[in-house]
Design brief:
The protein is mainly β. The protein contains one helix and six strands; from the N terminus they run βαβββββ. It is globular, with a radius of gyration of 13 Å.
Length: 100
């Protein structure tokens, strides 16, 4: 069972949390998703795991310079609108809106 917290890399290994079936988003746009898990990554980065309404599982990084888009304060299980945009480095999560 995934806890409502931000996992460390060590905790994910200890609890054998498998994330190999998550993939990066491939196209810019707006998506409706449920936050399934949050985990720390490298310095200044947070990994977010979502399930889209079509069942697809995606992983998205957010960074300190984005102020993590507020995800330290968003509970797992929250339904969200995710807004992805394209830049010279690829597709990134620009904004998030909590849905009721």
């Amino acid at each position: 069972m995934i806890a409502n917290k931000v996992y460390t890399c060590a905790e994910m290994r200890e609890e054998r949390i498998y994330t190999g079936d998550y993939e990066f988003i491939k196209e810019a746009g707006e998506y409706i998703a449920t936050l399934t898990m949050r985990a720390e990554a490298g310095s200044g980065m947070l990994r977010l795991f979502f399930r889209l309404v079509n069942g697809q599982k995606i992983i998205t990084p957010v960074f300190w310079w984005q102020k993590y888009l507020g995800f330290y304060d968003i509970d797992n299980g929250t339904k969200l609108k995710l807004i992805y945009e394209k830049n010279t480095k690829g597709i990134y999560l620009k904004a998030v809106e909590i849905l009721s």
